[in-house]
Write a structure and sequence with these properties.
The chain is an alpha/beta fold. 38% of the residues lie in helices and 16% in strands. The chain has a single domain, classed as 3-Layer(aba) Sandwich (Rossmann fold). Strands 1-2-4-3-5-6-7-8 form an eight-stranded mixed β-sheet, with helices on both faces. This is Alpha/beta hydrolase.
């Protein structure tokens, strides 16, 4: 799931990819943490350690605190920064375990690079961050939107390092199939817009990578939270077919996991903003499952 309606893209369709639609507005993290002030204040009073980590020629902003296992690692939506997990208290809600949030390349206060990259690159960089910051495995990964897809890809790449996933209105490998429902002219425009995303991610190549990687993570407990509300579908899109395809893809994705749970939530795309307690509860459940499995 991608939100492309950010402050510098307000003249284009503002679409959370494939069925869950939002209005043209800045993201919650952009409003809350664009200046870094609120997050910095929180960090100063709750023990978060801010680091600059070399992820392969560029530096990423990483915030971690605490100890205890399993660790919790947050992945942001496309173009978002780590503030999306701080503004409603989701990241600070787990003071007794090791918790990390970070800004991917071309987001937040991390470095900007001109070259395009894919989800595999982001997965590799996250793994390096975990090593440099001494964040031990196993880990529970919590990902929103495109970050949910990356979390699942990380689990498929390093299954022994992941003990649970919480995916908040995530992008799915099957998203590319749903594009075929859109009339050709609108489809070409929408796909081109996706490729002009602020992170310079090759989105469709990442979906192809995810098709291979995600099935390697199916033994891991997963909780998928899917939003049910959004704005109007752009003119010319077959709204009912797109929404039905999205729900079908969510069910099929979750069914791959023997310990998978799918919950539809009365919320817009940013569930962690509208219903933070629900997201916190989902993380707590996955933590409990992970702890029970390790006994």
């Amino acid at each position: 799931m991608i939100v492309i309606g950010r402050r510098h893209l307000t003249t284009v369709w503002c679409v959370a990819l494939l069925g869950i639609l939002v209005g043209c507005q800045s993201s919650p993290s952009e409003r809350a943490a664009g200046s870094g002030t609120d997050v910095a204040s929180l960090q100063a009073t709750t023990g978060w350690v801010v680091s600059r980590v070399d992820a392969g020629g560029h530096m990423l902003n990483v915030n971690c605190r605490g100890g205890g296992s399993p660790a919790i690692v947050f992945e942001n939506g496309l173009g978002d920064n780590l503030g999306t997990w701080f503004e409603t208290g989701v990241a600070p809600a787990f003071p007794l375990v090791r918790t990390c949030a970070y800004d991917r390349v071309n987001t937040g206060t991390s470095d900007r690079v001109p070259t395009r990259h894919t989800g595999r690159d982001s997965v590799r960089e996250l793994h390096k961050i975990m090593t440099v910051t001494a964040t031990p495995a196993p880990r529970v990964l919590v990902g929103h939107s495109f970050g949910g897809l990356l979390a699942a890809m990380y689990a498929g790449t390093y299954p022994a390092a992941v003990t649970g996933l919480v995916l908040v209105d995530p992008s799915l490998p099957a998203d590319v199939e749903t594009y075929r429902l859109i009339p050709e002219r609108e489809r070409i425009s929408a796909m081109a817009q996706e490729e002009r995303n602020p992170e310079r991610v090759d989105f469709f190549d990442t979906l192809r990578q995810a098709e291979v990687l995600v099935p390697k993570a199916v033994t891991i407990p997963v909780c998928v939270l899917a939003s049910t509300r959004g704005g109007a579908v752009p003119p010319g899109w077959p709204a009912a077919d797109v929404v039905a395809a999205r729900k079908k893809a969510l069910r099929e994705f979750t069914a791959q996991f023997p310990r998978g749970e799918l919950r539809f939530v009365d919320s817009g795309h940013y569930i962690q903003t509208e219903q933070p307690k629900l997201v916190i509860g989902a993380i707590q459940r996955i933590l409990e499952i992970a702890r029970d499995s390790s006994r």
